[in-house]
Specification:
homodimer; about 550 residues; alpha/beta; six-stranded mixed β-sheet; five-stranded parallel β-sheet; 21 helices; globular
Amino acid sequence: MSNPFRPTGAQVWTDLAEHHQNVRELSLQALFDDDPRRFDAMHCRAAGLVLDYSRNHVTLKTLDLLQRAAEAVALPEKVEALLNGAEVNTTEHRPALHTALRDFSGRAPHREDVEYTLARMSAFVRALHAGEWRGATGKPVTDVVNIGIGGSDLGPRMVTDALYDYHAGPRCHFVANIDRAELDRTLAGLSPETTLFIVASKSFTTLETLRNAESARAWLRDVVAREGDLGRHFIAISANVKRAVEFGIDADHVFPMWDWVGGRYSLWSAIGLSIALAVGMDHFNALRRGAFDMDEHFRTAPVLENLPALLGLLGVWYGNYWQAASHAVLPYAQALRQFPDFLQQLAMESNGKSMRLDNNAADYSTSPVLWGSVESYGQHSFHQLLHQGTQLIPVDFIATLHGGTDDMHHPWLLANCLAQARAMMTGKSYEAAREELIAQGMAEKEADALARHKQMPGNRPSNIILLERVSPAQLGALIALYEHRTYVQSLLWQINAFDQWGVELGKALSRRIHNELTGGTVDASLDSATRGLIELYKAAAEE
Amino acid sequence: MSNPFRPTGAQVWTDLAEHHQNVRELSLQALFDDDPRRFDAMHCRAAGLVLDYSRNHVTLKTLDLLQRAAEAVALPEKVEALLNGAEVNTTEHRPALHTALRDFSGRAPHREDVEYTLARMSAFVRALHAGEWRGATGKPVTDVVNIGIGGSDLGPRMVTDALYDYHAGPRCHFVANIDRAELDRTLAGLSPETTLFIVASKSFTTLETLRNAESARAWLRDVVAREGDLGRHFIAISANVKRAVEFGIDADHVFPMWDWVGGRYSLWSAIGLSIALAVGMDHFNALRRGAFDMDEHFRTAPVLENLPALLGLLGVWYGNYWQAASHAVLPYAQALRQFPDFLQQLAMESNGKSMRLDNNAADYSTSPVLWGSVESYGQHSFHQLLHQGTQLIPVDFIATLHGGTDDMHHPWLLANCLAQARAMMTGKSYEAAREELIAQGMAEKEADALARHKQMPGNRPSNIILLERVSPAQLGALIALYEHRTYVQSLLWQINAFDQWGVELGKALSRRIHNELTGGTVDASLDSATRGLIELYKAAAEE
C-alpha cells in the first residue's frame, strides 16, 4: 500500500510524511556522533524495565511529531476509556478489560468477580499442591494438561515455560493441535491416575479443544472405570457451564470466562490456572502485579516517556512511513523462547485488519508481520537477512541484566545482543572490509570483489528492552507492555484491536469439507482444486 | 524496493512486469470458474509429494513467462552445475555438494568420502544401540545431547522431532543457546553416567557450542572422575580434529565436516548422526533416499512439472512483481512443528543478501521474510492477518494424506487446511456477510455496518503440498524440495546462496563487548547507547 498515511484529518500525518523525506537519508551513527547525550535522552524506565530506543531513525523533531500523532488520536483519553471499561470493542459492543484482571488499585470494574475467581483459583491451587485434590483412584495429581487453543493456550503455555525456574507444583503440559500427535506425545509419559485435564474454551464447542478433551476422556476410561469419577480428572474454564457439565465436569469445577476479556488477553484470568498451578499463586499474583505496574505507567506517563506509547508510535513510523512490512522480536533469554509465538497472536490477530472503526476501509497498511525466535539461535540463521537483506526490518531486542551465576554464559549472551544491535546500526563499509582483506594478505583484485560481499549497509533500527531477569513481575510487565503497544497501534490505525472476524469463514468451511472428506457428497460447486484434493484423500484412505 | 526487476538483460523480466499489470486484477475464483480443468493442469507430483499450485495468480501465459525466466538464468545448466560440483559458492570458491551426501546413482563427486563416513556412522549407531558403546562407569547410553548451533542444530533437531514415531534408539536432545538455561533444563533429567554428548562445530571454535561443551564436561567431571574417561562421553563432528582432541575427544571419534557442504545443508552428513541414533541407520538412509528422489526430479523434470522450480519461480513472481515482503509456511502436521524454524535459516541465510554474483548491488528485493507455525495453532492466532490484513502474503500449506488411525482427528486437520486455502481464495463478499446477519435477525442498519468488518477480500494465493505421511523418505523429499527452491530463487536473483558474510561483524563485535562487560576498559569511541547499557550491566552486577 503506497497511499499517504492519513488515518484522521489532522495535519500531523502530512507533517510526518514530509519529515520522513528529510530524515530518511540520515545515518544512525551520525546521530550518535552529533549528540553525545543521545542515549541519556532516548532511554526510559517503567515497572523495572528499561527501553533504549536510541538506535531508531528519530530526531527530537520526529519525537515531537510522534507525540502530536498520539494527540491526534486522543491517546490519553483512549487509554482511560480502555481502563475504565468503555466499549472499545465496537463491533461486539464490549469493553476489553484485561487490565481489570490485574488491578491492585480498587478502581477497575468487575472487582468482585475478579476477586472471587482469584479466591477460587487460590483454593484450588492450594488443594492440589497439598495433595487434597486426588484422582479417582486416590492418588495426588502429578501432571496437569491444559487443553485449549489460541488465547486459551499460547499465553499460559508461554508464561509457564518462561517461569520454569519458579516451578513448584505439578508438571504442566499444553495440548492445542487437533493433530492427535500432540496429545499422544504429551500423554506418552503420563499416568491416567495422576493426571488432571483443564479444558479451556469459552463456548465449550471449540473443535480442536473438544476433540482433544474427548480423546483424553477415552484415555482415562480404562483406568477410571466408573464414569462419574472422571470428574476428578477434569476441570473446565468456560462461559458455558451447561456444556461442560454435559461433558462430565462438575459445575463447581468450572472456572469462568467473561465477555469483557478477549482470548489473546486472557492469561490473567482463570485461563492462567495452569500458570498458578505450576508456579504457585504468589508468583501468579506477582505476574499480575508486574502487569499492573505497567498499566499504571501506561495510564500516567507522558507520551515520550511512556514505553507502550513509544513502541507503538515507532512501529507505525516504520510501518507507514518507511514501509516496513515486518517487525522482528528477538529475546536473548531461553526462558522467552515462546514469546514471539505469543506476540504473533497478540499483534496480528489484534491489528491484522483492513476495516476502520468508522466502517471505512483503511487505504494504508495496518499490522506488519511479527516474527522472531529465541537468541542466540537466530544469529546463526536469519540474521544474515537482517544485516544484508534488501528490506528494512525494525527489531526489538529483549535481554536481561541478570542471568544466573555462571559467568561463562550470560555475559556472552548479553554481549551478543548488544553486538547485534550495534552491527545493524553501524554496518561495515566497503573500504573497511577491503582493508581487512588486504591486511590478511589477499590480492587487491580479489579483495576489491570480495569486500563488496562483506560490506554491510548498517543504519538498521532497533530497540533494546532490558529486564532485570525473567521473574514473574518483570514478565508480567513485559507482556503488558506489548499488550498496550498493540492498543496504541490500533488507535493510530483507527481499527478495533479486540474483534477477530477474519477467522470465521475458515471455521464454517472446515465443517463442510470435513463432511465431504468423510463420506458426504462432494459439492460440484466447490473449486476443482478442493474437489481434486478431497478425491486424492479418499483414494488414499481406501488403499 | 520499487525498481523494475531486471536481474539479467533478458526481455522476459519486462514482459513479466507488463503481464503483471494485466493479471493483477484477476480473481482466483474466476480463473477456476473459467477453466474446470485448472486443478488437473496445475498440480504435479515428485518423490511421492503432490504440489497443487492452482490457487496462484497465474494463467497459462504467466507459466509460459516463468518458464522463460528460468531459461533466462539457464536453470537446467545451473542445476547440473550444482549437482556436478561446480564452484557455485563463488565468494568462497567452493562447490555446494549436499546432494552428493544422498547420492544413490554413483555419479556424484566425493563418493568414497561419503560412503566411508556413512559406514563409520552405521558402525557407531550399531555399537551404541547394542549397548557396546558404554560410558566411563560401564553403563550403556540412554541419552544423547547434540551441542551445536545454526546448521549444526536446526536440521537434526527438526528431523529428529519430526520422526518421533520412528524413534528406536536413545533419547536425543539438542542444545544450541549460549544461555545456560537451555543446557541446564536439558541435563536436569539426565544422568552423567548414561549421557553422550555430540559436539558439532566445523571449526571447533563456535562460541556457543564450545561454552556449552565446556559446561557439559564440568557436569560430567563429578561422576567420571578420571579425565581420560571423558572420551567415553564425547564425540565430535568437526573439520578440526586437533582442537577436538585438545578438548578431550579421541581422534577416532571425530566425524568429518567438509568444505563442500554448507552448514544449513548439512543434515545429510555426519551432522545427521543424532538423527541416525534416534531412528536408526535404515530410516536415516530412507531420509537420504527421499531427498535423492527429489534431486533426480529436480535434475530431469521440465520446468513446469518441476516442483522446486515452480516453488522458486512463484516465490519470485510474488516477491518481485507483487511486492510480497514475506512468505508463510504452514505445516498441518504436529510432526513438522519445527519445520518453519529450519526453513527460516535455509531461505533467509541463503538468500537474504544484496550483492549479486557479478559484484554489483541488487536494485531489487531478494529473500522475503519466511515465517509460519505448526497448524492448526495459527488459525486461532495470526490467520486473522492472512485473511483480512493489508498485505499480500503467499502461503505454502503442507499436509498429509494419512495421519494415524484415529478418525476423530486427522480428517478434521486436513479439512481445516483445505478450508483455509479455500477461504483465502474465495473470501466473503460484503453482500453475503450482510445477508447472513439479516437472516440471523439483525437490524438492517447494524448489519450494514457489521458486514463491512466481516467481509474478506479473498484472492490470496497459496500452494498446497501433500505428503502421504511424515515418513523418513517423504520428509527427505520435502527438505530437498525447499533446498532446491532456495537455489532456484538465488539464480533468479543472481546471488550466491551458499555464503553468509553478513554474520561476521556481529561475532567480532561480541568479543569486544564481552571484554568490556567483564571488566575491560570501555572504549570511548563506542556509541553512547552501547556504553550506557554496559554501565547498567556493571551496576547491576555489583548490586
